[in-house]
Amino acid sequence: MRVLVVGSGGREHALAWRLAGSTAVTEIFSAPGNSGTALVGTNLPVSDTDIDGMVKAATDRSINLVVIGPEVPLALGLADRVAEAGIPCFGPSRRAARLESSKSFARDVQDAAGISGPEYRVFHNASAALAYAEYRDRPLVVKADGLAAGKGVAMCANLEEAKSAIMMCMQDRMFGEAGETVVIEEWLHGPEISVFAFADGENLSEVVAATDYKRVGEGDTGPNTGGMGSYGPPTPWDETLAKQVRSEIMLPVIRELAARGSPYRGALYCGLMLTDDGPRVLEFNCRFGDPETQAIMPRLVSDPAEVMMACATGSLDDVAPVEWSDSPVVAVVMVSGGYPGSYETGLEIHGLEESAFDDNDSMVFHAGVSHAADGSGHLVTSGGRVLTCVGMGDNIDQARHHAYGRAAEIRFDGAYYRPDIAMLASGQTARIP
Ligand code: AMP
Ligand code: GLY
Predict the structure, then answer these.
(1) Deepest in the core among 121, 127, 376, 404, taking most CB within 10 A?
(2) Residue 433 has what pLDDT?
(3) Full-prediction pTM beyond 0.85?
């Protein structure tokens, strides 16, 4: 199989790395990829939003399977175009991807499938939204309906905050079209967990869970980010909860989308809050998470290419059951100083020799890492989330030490990572370093 991975983040490096370990795969391409995906295959200089260019690249290179990492190309209909070109594609159609690209669509699917989530209302004009916030007068969550690069959700502790979030979306159009519709939700409480499974349009694989540390600072403080770390299997999470989430939440979504004529093929991501009343859906995403993928790909026992091909061709039953190992994995994201605000790029990265990518205990997935423009061969920073250090072990504490041990070897000016990823789960109270 010749496989093309679309995207350029840590998630895509983890996907390309895991696919490279498949005996079914003869060659891996990434587009546009990064310095990490270049270690496991060939990068193609095509932007992940250049739909025509991507389809052409897949055709020109006689690709047998396209694996789409990020949500934006999915929302732009890349999967539809790849399928039209006759190439199996791992990733949902534009219509099925609305599960992520429209929060009101996702809530509608959820209701139709009888899945429990927060109480919510959808608004298309500001005055009705403001009147509702006033009437509720309690902590609310105001969400832009469309894709907003993870910035479209406002946690509003009081009426004033809710009003300003509504005005920012609907009047100031801070998120453009994505905020023309808003969803206002009840503010739920409890630990959050990300759950993933493979879907082939009709069937759903066994699920796997990981956490996502969204806040930039130790102890969950500071602004939200794209994700500062992850670990799994998480606490609290067990076989009973896995079965419940699979059969009561994720499978009903797949069935509902199939019934609507939009079969869902690809990775289904369910963001859950474990409330006192049981698991409640915060969001669905139409792809794997970043940085969760860096923490779950090392745990995928089944052949990734066979599983993804089965999703693309509606034959997941043939490769069932999809097996996930219970071995703990901890992923620590190293970011540029200043992230998620403004930050410098082009800073030389030390301690990231190409040969040191993978050993038995730890590895590094690249994201905002590039080769210096001066041809020196040096690796330099080129993004906010620069790389993910991943540790494995017999227990969470060991996995955590391996991840942080790796992080301690890597240096660049202003480098920062949270010292408390998986800290409580490891039974430790000590931050690292
Ligand atoms: P979303 O993009 O919808 O997942 O929202 C991003 C983050 O906002 C989630 O990971 C939660 O931390 C938080 N969030 C979203 N919806 C709710 C809700 N109804 N109650 C509490 N927190 C929420
Ligand atoms: N880790 C959050 C996301 O991928 O959306």
Answers:
(1) 404
(2) 66
(3) yes
